[in-house]
Write a structure and sequence with these properties.
Chain lengths: 160, 748
């Protein structure tokens, strides 16, 4: 490489634990998660913030980690699918995805689960229209969406 | 023989990959780390059609951190071209480029940033050639052909006396329909890691057909099959885009140059320049009697296969096979041609040639029904092939009662009682129907191995790639059922050519039917061995032994299968092996006849057209799926819904747009795919189990049928609502508005 760019130190909370990393200013969050922390559950697909495969929660809100700079995590809490799955509280949503066949190839699933979690955290009883509107930033090319809507509805029921 | 109730077959078991896929642990090719692996970036052609006059990679090779640059000059001591039917695709462009985005050089470097920097240092000079864009230009003999000519493949068949039938019938209709180029968008773009080593080649790749990749790599690089290992981790969506061999030869050649493992992960932009669905034009002439009897159909058509053949031969044929439709006709003539153009090579995509063919077939059926003053549903029923009739002469007769299936969908949809109801001003509602049968291209060749362990558990070995369809769960269900052990005691090992026995491919809706039979037979092989052991144990005949829940019993006494195995080996360990071979001779040759099975597709749509904006909303869509026997009903529905949703994409908005050979929308912002809000209010799969498939328990393939009837049923609904026929997809608001506008002008 020609000239080494400046680097930034980023201290943040990752899946509930404090961590630190040194990143380049242009490093996207997804690269830091996958390459520095080995959290490969976060998937790269469209690279233009359309598909949602790279969704992680930043302070509880879904973001596309392909376009968010890693340094924006500084001082904030990042939740990836690995952290989500390790939390027992996630099991109603996970089980609802299993029961309703709401995943097939599984490539969109980490982002889909996190988007659904953030929806249910904000609105524990979403209508079908709310689910569709909230989740429209997450593409699934396998299921046709119906079974994911049903899974989110079932998880909402279970949470009540 | 008493009938035994299924324990796991027919139930929506917990998928064997659920825990991996819902925790982020599931590994796709791009998640793997191979020690010492270099990163690849491609130098691709900015021009759609050009002679390469110079490639100079010396500056790139001199860059620190670059291990190797592959150009056509390095394709020595190996075969240079590959392809499934025609080996016309060079491993990397040689002398000429045939589409924009074709790889001309490939860099392997210590990291991606270095590879990207090196790409900029590869100097390529071109001599531009006139571009062939689309079917019309491909047919123009005056241009510069893409290959020796622009004709990739010609296909045709005929029966009856077509010309006489057209002379003698009451009315003749002729219509032409256009289907766009579309892109699969498997969310995991093609990814491949190759380690080229002196005594072996190892590949980890997002491929649907691991054994076809193995054979292609062995042939290209002069290796024995046992020296080529292809491992397919979880695949992030296939739909045909990862069929046959794609980027693997290039990465293998680059790894050979670099002397170390190399990884190439395509972007969506690059994946859109790797494979797509064939655009098509179908013209159908249909001769009918005034009572609604179809007497003759002549179907001619073209498919645009892009810069290389890929699967163009089979798609040309399947387009022709599928265009006449599921109707009983005494006279048929079909001629189709596959054409080369300067665009992304077109390959398999869910139901190859099917959506294109049935778009034309079923749109025209409605045109005719309307002209004859008949209900389009009743017109179809009147002409349907009957159970046991040959859909295509000389091929397997149709299994199953199509009329029953059509009536089931019509009943559940409420076809006969439907009324448009009140709508806002300028909004019109209509309903449309479509049906089709598609001949599966499934080759009846699979093998499986099952190991039955000394603790009563089992491992099933299959070549099928798991790309979402749930084959591992279905195979575990079949094995558990036939081994008479719980589903939870079966593990599945898949798609590693050094570990699992040979399978042809994962596609054409074939795995449940054909790999399912192999697993079924392998499990029965073991069960028979267990019965023999139990007979010895009880001093009885094998036929007298009952086997269930992991135990063999005789006259009120029982013994665990596990104990039988341990006893056989005289101690604590041991295991049994069972094998299943599926060949054309299987079951007295019943798989030999083409096609292995017919996949049924039926669609009923209710749509709403805003005549002011041209916007069409799909309010309700009903589809049918007949898996013969639903081994996992939820997965069957999931296949059908997923297929129908992909069709909603090509029906309403998906289209790769080319201008002078340049792809205008190579990203997901400009190429829109369906999202949650495109889901109709009612989106139903009518599941029927006719029990007549050639697979285990009467199962047959599903997963493709759902994609073929959406577009024609929606266009038929628009016609029903507005009286305007649209014969080109996708049905964008602009296209619909223009069609309404032109019709209005003509009327007014």
């Amino acid at each position: 490489m020609a000239e080494a760019p400046d680097t930034l130190a980023v201290a943040f909370e990752l899946n509930g634990a404090p961590v630190e990393a040194t990143v380049e200013p242009q490093t996207p969050l997804i690269d830091m998660l996958r390459e520095r922390f080995g959290l490969t559950g976060t998937k790269r697909s469209c690279d233009v913030q359309v598909c949602g495969a790279c969704t992680v929660l930043l302070d509880g809100a879904p973001v596309s980690s392909c376009t968010v700079p890693a340094f924006e995590a500084r001082g904030r809490a990042v939740l990836t699918v690995e952290g989500f799955a390790a939390d027992d509280a996630s099991s109603p949503l996970v089980e609802a995805f299993v029961n309703n066949a709401a995943f097939q190839c599984g490539f969109c699933t980490p982002g889909m689960l996190l988007a659904a979690k953030s929806l249910l955290d904000a609105d524990p009883a979403p209508s079908e229209e709310t689910i569709k509107d909230y989740m429209r930033g997450n593409v699934c090319r396998c299921t046709g969406y119906k079974k994911i809507v049903e899974a989110v509805q079932e998880a909402a029921e279970a949470g009540r | 023989m008493t009938t035994r109730e299924f324990k796991t077959v027919g139930t929506a078991v917990r998928r064997v990959d659920a825990d991996d896929k819902l925790s982020g642990r599931a590994q796709f090719t791009g998640d793997l780390q191979v020690p010492g692996m270099a990163f690849c970036k491609l130098v691709t052609s900015p021009l759609p059609h050009a002679r390469i006059t110079r490639v100079d990679a010396s500056r790139a090779r001199a860059l620190s951190g670059v291990y190797a640059v592959l150009t056509s000059a390095e394709l020595v001591n190996m075969e240079t071209h590959y392809g499934s039917d025609k080996k016309d695709r060079p491993v990397i462009a040689i002398d000429k480029v045939r589409f924009q985005g074709e790889p001309v050089a490939a860099v392997a470097a210590i990291d991606l940033a270095t590879a990207e920097a090196a790409v900029e240092l590869v100097d390529v000079e071109y001599e531009e050639l006139p571009t062939v864009t689309g079917i019309d230009e491909a047919l123009d003999p005056s241009g510069e052909p893409v290959h020796e000519s622009n004709v990739c493949h010609e296909y045709g068949y005929e029966w009856g006396d077509v010309d006489a039938a057209f002379r003698e019938c009451d009315r003749v209709f002729e219509d032409t329909f256009e289907f766009p180029m579309v892109y699969h968008y498997a969310m995991e773009p093609h990814t491949c890691i190759v380690s080229y080593e002196p005594d072996r080649i190892r590949l980890w790749t997002s491929a649907q057909h691991p054994f076809l990749v193995q054979a292609e790599i062995a042939r290209l690089f002069g290796r024995q099959l046992d020296q080529v290992q292809v491992v397919v981790p979880f695949v992030g969506g296939g739909y045909g885009s990862k069929s046959y061999t794609k980027i693997e030869p290039l990465v293998t050649a680059l790894s050979r140059e670099a002397g170390r493992p190399v990884r190439l992960a395509l972007s969506v932009d690059e994946a859109m320049r790797t494979v797509r669905r064939h655009a098509a034009r179908g013209t159908i002439r249909t001769g009918v009697m005034n009572d609604g009897t179809i007497v003759a159909r002549e179907c001619t058509g073209y498919v645009d296969t892009g810069g290389y053949t890929d699967n163009g031969v089979r798609v040309t044929e399947r387009f022709g096979d599928r265009m006449p439709g599921p109707y009983s006709m005494a006279n048929v003539r079909v001629k189709t041609r596959g054409l080369f153009t300067n665009s992304t090579p077109a390959g398999s995509y869910r139901s190859i040639g099917g959506p294109q063919a049935i778009w034309a077939c079923e749109s025209q059926i409605d045109v005719i029904a309307h002209a004859l003053g008949m209900d389009p549903f009743e017109f179809r029923v009147k002409n349907l092939v009957r159970e046991g009739e040959e859909v295509r002469r000389g091929r397997r007769p149709i299994e199953g009662d199509l009329e029953y299936a059509l009536r089931r969908v019509a009943d559940e949809f409420g076809w006969n009682s439907w009324r448009p109801g009140p709508t806002p001003p300028g909004v019109k509602r209509g309903i449309g129907f479509a049906c089709g049968v598609t001949n599966s291209g499934a080759s009846p060749t699979s093998t499986s191995l099952v190991r039955f362990h000394a603790d009563g558990s089992a491992t099933v070995y299959i070549g099928s790639a798991e790309m979402g369809q749930g084959s591992r769960s279905v195979m575990a269900q079949i094995a558990a059922e036939e081994l008479r052990i719980p589903y939870g005691k079966v593990r599945v090992v898949a798609s590693d050519t050094t570990a699992v026995p040979w399978d042809r491919s994962t596609g054409s809706s074939r795995s449940t039917t054909l790999m399912g039979l192999a697993v079924h037979d392998a499990a029965i092989d073991i069960r028979q061995q267990l019965l023999d052991l139990a007979a010895e144990h009880f001093e009885a005949f094998p036929e007298e032994i009952e086997a269930e829940d992991g135990r063999a019993s005789f006259k009120g006494e029982s013994v665990a299968f596990a104990a039988l195995v341990r006893n056989m080996f005289g101690g604590s360990g041991g295991e049994l092996m069972g094998r299943g071979y599926v060949t054309p001779k299987h079951a007295s040759g019943k798989l030999r006849q083409d096609t292995v099975f017919w996949e049924v597709s039926i669609g009923a749509a209710e749509g709403e057209v805003d005549t002011a904006t041209g916007e069409v909303r799909l309010l309700r869509y009903y589809s049918i799926s007949d898996p013969g026997k639903a081994i996992n009903p939820k997965q069957v529905e999931g296949q059908d819904e997923g297929a129908a949703m992909q069709a909603i994409g090509h029906t309403f908005f998906e289209e790769m747009l080319y201008e002078d050979g340049q792809l205008l929308n190579p990203n997901l912002v400009d190429y829109r795919v369906p999202v949650f809000t495109d889901l109709p209010h009612e989106f139903e799969t009518v599941l029927i189990e006719s029990g007549n498939g050639p697979g285990p328990y009467g199962a047959k393939g599903v997963g493709e049928g759902g994609i073929v009837c959406v577009a024609p049923s929606v266009a038929n609904a628009i016609f029903n609502a507005t009286g305007v026929r649209i014969s080109t997809l996708p049905l964008t608001p602009e296209r619909v508005w223009r069609a309404l506008h032109e019709a209005g002008q003509e009327a007014g």
